[in-house]
Amino acid sequence: MIKIALNSEKAEIEICGMFEKEKNKIEPLFYGKEGEICIIPFENKLRLALGLGDEKTLTIHKIRNWYAKAIKEIKKYPIKTVMVTAIETEKINKKLMLQAMLEGLYLADYNYKGYHTNSKEKINREIILNGFDDIEEKQTMINQIENLIESINEARDMILEPANFLFAQTLADRVKQIAKESGLECEVLEEKEIQELGMNAFLAVAKGSAHPPKLIVLRYFNSNGPILGLVGKGITYDTGGYCLKPGSSLQNAKGDMAGAATAIAIMRALAKNHCTVNIVAVIACCDNVIAGNAYLPGDVVTSMSKKTIEILNTDAEGRLTLADALTYIIEVEKIDQVIDIATLTGMAGRTFGSLYTPAFTNNDTFFMQFMQAAEKTGEDYWRMPCDPRYHSYIESKVADIKNTGEAGTITAAMFLKDFVKDTPWIHLDIAATAQQRPAVFEYATDCPSGVAIRTIYEMVQQEPILKA
Ligand code: BES
Ligand code: ZN
Ligand code: ZN
After folding, report:
1. Among 16, 73, 117, 245, which is least packed by CB within 10 angstroms?
2. CA-wise closest residue to 327 among 219, 212, 206, 416
3. CA separation (Å) from 442 to 72, 112, 175, 191, 246?
């Protein structure tokens, strides 16, 4: 993890952002093109010249991205101290510039520890800031960014954790620990309580597993305003069940709890930074595996909302667990609006690649608040249709609805929409953006992106979240 030093002069390398117009200034072969990197000896240390392109088109998102690229280059060497010098430009507010630089540096400095017998010792790099003395409350800002990125890194660790270590019980234990350390209230409901609540859609998915399901609830109340709800898909391993996935698709099956990790990270960051908000996160956590008693295609289950569901495909398990989690968060936790985050459909990636996260809503104002935040964080979302005509795609002959239909990403959302009724709701299908292939951001080339964490965190900061 990077640490910021405010009053040190010495650094082994200095990152110097340079525009195209400054080409040849330090090195004849450096052109200042966007993302260009050139390391050159300079006054007893090294200088990393970082191309920023045309000054007129510079944005904080480019800064975040190129500084991430710079630190990835530095990570190749045993360099411990890095000086980051303010970019000379009137175009970007200094505070936002520093924020973007720190986000890029921290986000790209992540390494998954893993299980190597001889693991390499991790270098704790120190960042020395140069030219930012005029920013007031710099230390508070740095601490807040640190807490946010540490939370994202926790989410990344969880997503990458193998399923033989991370299953419902161990995830619940981990969340309890996070809650204790960050000042969140945590409640874990056991199988019996889940049964008593009538969460039979969730239980159907969990039925075949040797690991009992857990309903994890995190609460943080620190405002007089309404309560925001987060529901994260928490499938610790998705084999597809009897609609078994092909072997090549199973390599990533352990990451099907990225939505849950996202919700946990948001809660951790908000509590650590003592943000003014009321927020509850719910995770219906289990794995989707095959066994003699596992659920079968053709089964009909009665969800917590009493709506009956025909299960056509056991691989469309996420919406079943989410349906009950949404009913629970609305009816029991009495939240005022809700965002669900889920690695829900492979079709999301086939449509958008990893560039855009498909987003659905039933409330324009709520969605606008979300998109305003996304503009600040540089994450791309694409609003998808919630056209009621799609509902006919999931009408069933034997139950109220069925769990699959044509237009995969949209019908998955239509399914969820039935369970939120009138509650303002946003659904984010992060199937292809939680782990980006190919990576969109420099900080997400070989690890989970943390998509939606910064945006929902930002949304909570900037807006009095809409009262239903
Ligand atoms: N977890 C998967 C979706 C997924 C696929 C996430 C690839 C990340 C990468 C989900 O449970 C699933 O299997 N969805 C099916 C739905 C289908 C059976 C209607 C899919 O997308 O194929
Ligand atoms: Zn599935
Ligand atoms: Zn899944």
Report:
1. 117
2. 416
3. 8, 16, 28, 41, 30
What average pLDDT score do residues 283-309 get? 98
Domain 148-459: homologous superfamily in CATH: Zn peptidases (3.40.630.10)
Tell me the CA–centroid distance for residue 348 and ligand 1, in Å.
9
Ligand 1: lining residues by beta carbon, under 6 Å: 238, 240, 252, 256, 313, 315-318, 343-347, 404, 408, 431
CA nearest 311: which of 288, 328, 327? 288
Annotation marks residue 383 as catalytic: no
The whole-number pLDDT of residue 67 equals 98
Q: With a threshold of 0.90, does the pTM exceed it?
A: yes
**Which CATH number is 2-109 given?**
3.40.220.10
Identified catalytic residue from 245, 307, 376, 383: 245
Q: Are 285 and 205 in contact (CB under 8 A)?
A: no
Ligand 1, atom 22, lies closest to the CA of 346
8-state DSSP, 212: P
**Domains 2-109 and 148-459 alike in fold:** no
Domain boundaries, the chain: 2-109, 148-459
Among candidates 168, 277, 159, which has minimal Cα distance to 219? 277
Residue identifier of the C-alpha nearest atom 7 of ligand 1? 346
198 pLDDT more than 60:
yes
Give the distance, in angstroms, between the CA of residue 149 and the centroid of all CA atoms in the same chain. Answer: 11
In the residue annotation, 95 being an active-site residue is answered as no
Position 112 confidence tier, pLDDT thresholds 50, 70, 90: very high
Do the Cβ atoms of 360 and 430 come closer than 8 Å?
no
| Integer angstrom CA distances of residue 467 from 41, 43, 228, 424 | 57, 58, 9, 9
Question: What is the rounded CA–CA span in Å between residue 236 and residue 223?
Answer: 33
| φ, ψ at 430 (rounded to 5°) | -95, 20
